[in-house]
Specification:
homodimer, 322 residues, alpha/beta, TIM Barrel, 2 domains, 8-stranded parallel barrel, two-stranded antiparallel sheet, 11 helices
Chain lengths: 322, 322
C-alpha cells in the first residue's frame, strides 16, 4: 500500500509506514476573488508566492486548481492549467496534484507536468468514472477517488464505503492498481452531523483494512460553522492519522494543522529522532526571534548545527526520564 | 465497560460512549516544593486554589496526592490525606481519586471520602497486588492499574499488555469486575523511544478489545525532553482518544490539552450539539474580553443565552455547508 508521486527529482511516498503527506491547497481560486481576477488577467505572481509559502511551511505536494468559474471552464481551464503548471515547474521541482472537474484540463495538465503527478479527482458518478479512469490508466497515474456518486454525498458511512469500493473495483478493470487509488471518504461538518468525526475515523480504518487503499481528506470541512476552528482541525487531523489516514489536502500555513501533523508523525514513529519536528519548531522559533530582533534592531542568532544538537539533547533528556 | 466514580451528588461515568474524563493532577506535591512545604506546615490554601482552578477548567475528578517525600510517608501520609480530603469536601462535591503508594493512606482516604472514589493505584508487583486489591475489593471501589511489575517498565508493549492482563485476572479473583479496573498502559517519552506513541495507541485498542477495560494515562510524559511540548501533548491525547482511551490524569489548566479534549469529544460524537465545546470556547473568549476591558477600563458584555444561540447558529451554518 504505497502511492508514489514524482517530480523530475523528488519522489513522495504515501503509505502507512511513511510520514504524513501534506498536499498544499492554496493554489485554487475557489472563494478567492483576487486570485481569480489575477489568473484571468494573466497575473500569476500570487500563485508563485502561494507555491513558495506552502513549500516553506512543509507541503510535500502542491495542488493546482485553476477553476475560474466566472468564465466557461471548458474553454479556459486547459490553457490556464498549462500556464500555471509550466510556471510552477520553472521555479521549483515539488511534485504536483492536478485538480480539475474538466477532463481536458486534466489531460492538458498531465501532458506538461513532469514526473508522476497525482490526479484530483474521480467520483463514483458513472459519467465521471468513464471519463477520468481511462485517462488515469493511459498515463499510469495515481488518482484521488471521492466517495460520492449521482445520489450525492450519503450521510450513511456504509454507503460512502460502498461507493469507494465501487470506484476501486472499476479502476481495477482499467488496470489501475489499489496502490494508485487514494480514497477521500468525505468528512461532513461535525457541527451538523454529530457522528461526522467518528464515521470518518471508521471509514479510514475500513478502507485501509478491507480495500487496501490510502485515504485522504480535506482537513477543515469538519469544523465548518464552529468557532475557533483550529482546535477542531488539529485534533481531527491527529485523530485521522491515528486511524490510518496517510495524506490530506490542507493549508500548511495554518500553524495548528501544520504542527499537529508534525507531532502526529513523531507519535506514529515516522519522524526519526524527531528531526522534522525539531526543525519545524526551531524554524518557527527563529521566525519569532527574527521578528522580535527586527522590532528591537538587533541581529538574530543562528546556528547550523543546532537542530542536530537539540535532537541529541532531547534524546538524552528523555533517556534519563525512563 | 463503564467505570462509575461518585461524590455524594455527582456521578462520573468513564467509558467508550461517554465524554472523555479529565482527572486533575495538580494536587500533588511531587516536584512542587512550595506546595510540599505548605502541606507540611498545615497550610492548604494552595490546595484549595488548585482544586477550584481545575474544576473551573473542566476537571471531572480531582486526584489527591499528599506524598511529601521529605518526611516518613507511612507516618505522615494517612493524616495528611484525611485533612486534605475533608478540606476539599468541605468546599466542593467533585468526585475524588485517592492517590498514594502508602496503603494506610489509601485506607484513611477511603474512610473519609464521600461517594465512590477512584483508587490510584495498583501495579503488577506481587506485593502491591496483595496489599491493594483486598482493600479495593472490601470497599467495592474502582482502581487504576499500572502495567509495570517487579522487573520495571518494559519497552516491549506485549510485556506491558501481559502485566495488565495479569492484574485484571488477579482482581477478578478478589471479585473486582473489569468495569472497575482502569489500565494505565504507560506512555514512554517518544523522544527516547521512537515507537512510544504507536505502542500506546495499540495497547489502548488491545486492552479495550481483549480485556474489556477502560484505559488512561498521564498525558505529558510522552513529550518529555522535547521543545514546545503543547503540540505533542495535544496531538497525543487526541490520537489516544481516537484509539479508545477514555480518561487521563492531566492538567486541565493547559490550554492545548484542555481544548484538544473538548475537540476530541466533539469528533467522537460525545458532545451533543457541541455544547461543551462552545461553552468552553466562549468562556475562554469571555476571559480574554474581561482581561482586555480591564486593561481599557470598560465593562465586559455578557449574555446568558449566548451559548445556546451560538450552538443553533453553528448547526444552521453547518447545514448550509452540506
Amino acid at each position: 500500500m504505497k502511492t508514489v508521486i514524482k517530480s523530475p527529482t523528488k519522489s513522495v511516498n504515501i503509505g502507512p509506514n511513511e510520514p504524513f503527506v501534506i498536499i498544499g491547497e492554496r493554489i485554487n481560486p475557489t472563494g478567492r476573488k483576487k486570485l481569480e481576477a489575477e489568473m484571468m488577467a494573466g497575473d500569476f505572481s500570487r500563485v508563485l508566492r502561494d507555491a513558495r509559502a506552502q513549500m516553506m511551511a512543509g507541503a510535500h505536494i502542491l495542488d493546482v486548481n485553476v477553476g475560474v468559474t466566472s468564465i466557461q471552464p471548458h474553454k479556459t481551464e486547459p490553457d490556464l492549467m498549462i500556464k500555471v503548471i509550466e510556471l510552477i515547474q520553472s521555479v521549483t521541482d515539488i511534485p504536483l496534484c492536478i485538480d480539475s472537474s474538466v477532463v481536458p484540463a486534466l489531460i492538458a495538465g498531465i501532458k506538461v507536468a513532469k514526473g508522476r503527478p497525482l490526479i484530483n479527482s474521480v467520483t463514483g458518478e458513472e459519467e465521471r468514472l468513464e471519463a477520468v479512469l481511462p485517462v488515469v490508466a493511459e498515463y499510469n497515474l495515481p488518482v484521488i477517488a471521492i466517495s460520492n456518486d449521482e445520489s450525492g454525498i450519503s450521510y450513511d458511512p456504509r454507503v460512502r464505503f460502498a461507493v469507494a469500493k465501487k470506484i476501486v473495483e472499476r479502476a481495477e478493470t482499467y488496470g489501475i492498481s489499489r496502490d494508485d487509488v487514494i480514497i477521500d471518504p468525505l468528512a461532513m461538518p461535525v457541527g451538523a452531523v454529530r457522528t461526522a468525526g467518528a464515521d470518518l475515523f471508521t471509514l479510514v480504518r475500513m478502507i485501509r483494512e478491507e480495500l487496501g487503499c490510502n485515504t485522504m481528506c480535506g482537513a477543515s470541512n469538519i469544523s465548518f460553522g464552529l468557532p475557533q476552528r483550529q482546535w477542531i482541525n488539529s485534533s481531527f487531523i491527529s485523530m485521522a492519522i491515528a486511524s490510518g489516514m496517510t495524506c490530506a489536502i490542507t493549508n500548511p500555513l495554518e500553524e495548528h494543522i501544520r504542527n499537529a501533523v508534525y507531532a502526529a508523525d513523531v507519535l506514529m514513529g515516522h519522524d526519526e529522532d524527531c528531526m522534522r519536528y525539531l526543525t519545524a519548531i526551531r524554524k518557527a522559533d527563529a521566525g519569532a526571534r527574527a521578528a522580535a530582533s527586527e522590532a528591537s534592531g538587533e541581529a538574530p542568532t543562528a546556528d547550523a548545527g543546532e537542530d542536530r544538537r537539540a535532537a541529541r539533547e532531547a534524546r538524552r533528556a528523555a533517556r534519563t526520564a525512563r
